[in-house]
Amino acid sequence: MKDIEFKLNSTDIHPNSEIIGNIVVSYPGRYDGVVINTQILDSNEHITYRSYNGKKISQNVSRLFINKDSMPDNKAEFTALIKFEPAMEHEVKFRASIIEQHKEIESQIIFAKYSV
After folding, report:
1. What pLDDT is stored for residue 107 in this prediction?
2. What is the C-alpha to C-alpha distance for residues 115 and 88, in angstroms, rounded to an integer?
3. How many CA atoms lie within 13 A of 112 on its CB side?
4. Which class for 42: exposed (0-12), middle (13-18), buried (19 or more C-beta within 10 A)?
5. pLDDT tens-digit profile, the chain (116 residues)
6. Would you state the pLDDT for residue 61?
7. 7: closest CA among 115, 102, 112?
8. Which residue in 96, 92, 109 sits closest to 17, CA to CA?
9. What is the 3-state secondary structure of 48-98?
10. CA distances for 5 relative to 2, 27, 62, 83, angstroms
11. What is the pLDDT of residue 1?
């Protein structure tokens, strides 16, 4: 088993549909938390993270860090949204990484499709 398992509820994303992601960390060492970075390829638009582990996010953030202290059983669930109406189909790259002392330990990448 890898040190990080990352899944999305769907890799077929549409405007204003909720994106739900789940992360499970089995890294045996100490770590500070996980970070989720997202790129909407061929676009200047951003994703907006709405919550993690049931806690609402008050600001619009396009990069999400979840502290280990906020991850019971080394698990995290987040929700996100992409709002813009795409003129074409875009590929969306999600990257979840384990962070220890400002260094990336391991990551997993998922590609999704964003269209109307």
Report:
1. 96
2. 7
3. 23
4. exposed
5. 689 999 999 999 999 999 999 999 999 999 999 999 999 999 999 999 999 999 999 887 878 999 999 999 999 999 999 999 999 999 999 999 999 999 999 999 999 999 99
6. 80
7. 112
8. 92
9. EEEEECCEEEEEEECEEEEEHHHCHHHEEEEEEECCCCCCCCEEEEEEEEE
10. 7, 10, 21, 27
11. 66
Cα angle vertex 17, ends 34, 66, to 5°? 15
Residue 52 structure tokens: 């993690």
Assigned token pair, 42? 């061929």
Q: Of all residues in the chain, what percent are helix, strand and coil, respectively (each to 5)? A: 5, 60, 35
Question: What pLDDT does residue 39 have?
Answer: 94
Residue with tokens 């990257």: 95
- The alpha carbon of 42 is separated from its chain's Cα centroid by a whole number of angstroms, namely 19
Three-class secondary structure of residue 32 per DSSP: coil
